[in-house]
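Inverse folding, one chain.
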């Protein structure tokens, strides 16, 4: 795991105290992509947290972007987000 990966994961875990947080580095699949030229990575995250309860998808994504904040401008080029409340995983 890279330092960047660890920083992202720590931010998400600290901010959400999730029941589950799965972060995946998809950067290799985007090699040669113009956005990857800056060195920023492509990631996917599935996160299950009480903080998403009662929020719509846009509000959930905003919370995730708030959690990674400045990393979106320096270390993350793209972030695919799947954000669920614990109740939604029991359906």
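Residues assigned per position:
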């Amino acid at each position: 795991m890279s330092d960047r990966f660890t920083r992202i994961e720590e931010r998400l875990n600290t901010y959400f105290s999730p029941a589950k947080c799965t972060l995946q580095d998809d950067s290799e699949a985007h090699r040669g992509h113009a956005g990857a030229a800056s060195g920023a990575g492509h990631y996917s995250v599935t996160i299950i947290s009480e903080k998403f309860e009662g929020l719509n998808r846009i509000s959930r994504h905003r919370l995730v972007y708030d959690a990674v904040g400045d990393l979106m401008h320096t270390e993350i080029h793209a972030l695919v987000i799947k954000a669920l409340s614990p109740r939604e995983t029991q359906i």
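The radius of gyration is 13 Å. The longest strand covers residues 76-84.
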